[in-house]
Amino acid sequence: MRIPSLIWILHFMNLTRGLDNTKILRFRRNSSMSRLCPAGCVTCSALNGCLSCKPRLFFHLELDGMRQRGSCLSSCPRGLYGKRSPHISTCTRCKEDCASCFSENFCTNCHPGHFLFRGKCENSCPNGLTANTALRECTECSTGCEVCVRRNTCVRCRADLYSLHGQCHLTCPRGFEPDVQLMQCLPQVHCQVGEWTDWGPCVRRRSMRAYRKGEETRTRQVLRSPSVRGEPCPHVSEIRKCAIKKRPKSPNRL
Q: Rounded to an integer, what distance in angstroms lies between the CA atom of residue 52 and that of residue 30?
């Protein structure tokens, strides 16, 4: 049954019950009691709520238990759209596949399993567009992208392309290197070493012919190992020649 018809029925029921001296509140705009109607109502009923609305407001009929109650709204709830007419403006339900709509033939959001495309909710998206399950819409992806959440945010690139920051690349840009297993561009990691230790003791090697000549060594640790294409580590040990100090003679025993 159409909403305007229901409104006339509510008016008729209201008038009939009034004649039977039942507890009905029906107030005209010029009535001193009209302030008892809900906000936005011109006429109302205690049982059925608003019966007519002020200009520019939408009449919305909803179930209240087993009873239907009317209300006057400045905008319609989700799943309904405002339909204006010279006599009464009403909230009308969107099409079944629309979660919300702007008009009868223009959806703005879709139910799960449907995807928004040019104001329609479709079961699948046309070629060249990705069915975005998060946004429930058909998204146009950038070149080389197979699945995206929006045009500039790709989540799956073509098999021969590398992914970096939501974009697809044939080769990785400077400062990054390709991971052929993950098909991603990863930041290059350069080697990082610590400070040199102090020089160690002077030690004579067997191969040294000179008496009292030796070598001393110092080292430094690798703090961060490089990636495959990162800058390699410098040498972490140094050796230099040294002179072995003469040991002091032990005092003669008494």
A: 14
On the 0-12 / 13-18 / 19+ scale of CB atoms within 10 A, 85 is exposed
Cβ(60)–Cβ(49) under 8 Å? Answer: no
Residue whose C-alpha is closest to residue 81's, from 108, 54, 63: 108
Q: Which helix (H) or strand (E) holds 50?
A: strand 49-53
Q: Map tokens 């919300």 to a residue.
A: 100
Residues with Cβ within 8 Å of residue 72, at least 6 apart in sequence: 38, 39, 40, 41, 50, 53, 54, 57, 58, 59, 60
SS3 207: coil
- DSSP label at 171? S
**What are the phi and psi torsion angles at 137 (to 5°)?**
-150, 160
Distance of alpha carbon 136 from alpha carbon 145, whole angstroms: 18
DSSP 79: T
- Going residue by residue through the chain (254 aa), what tens digit of pLDDT does each one get? 444 455 444 444 443 444 343 333 343 444 433 558 888 999 998 888 999 999 999 999 888 888 889 999 999 999 999 999 888 899 999 999 899 999 999 999 999 999 999 999 999 988 778 888 888 988 888 888 888 877 778 888 999 999 999 999 999 999 999 999 999 999 999 999 999 999 999 888 776 565 678 899 999 999 999 999 999 999 999 999 888 877 666 665 44
Burial 4-40 (b: 16+ CB within 10 A, else e): eebbeebbeebeebeeeeeebebbeeeeeeeeebeeb
Helix (H, G, I), strand (E, B) or coil at 8: helix
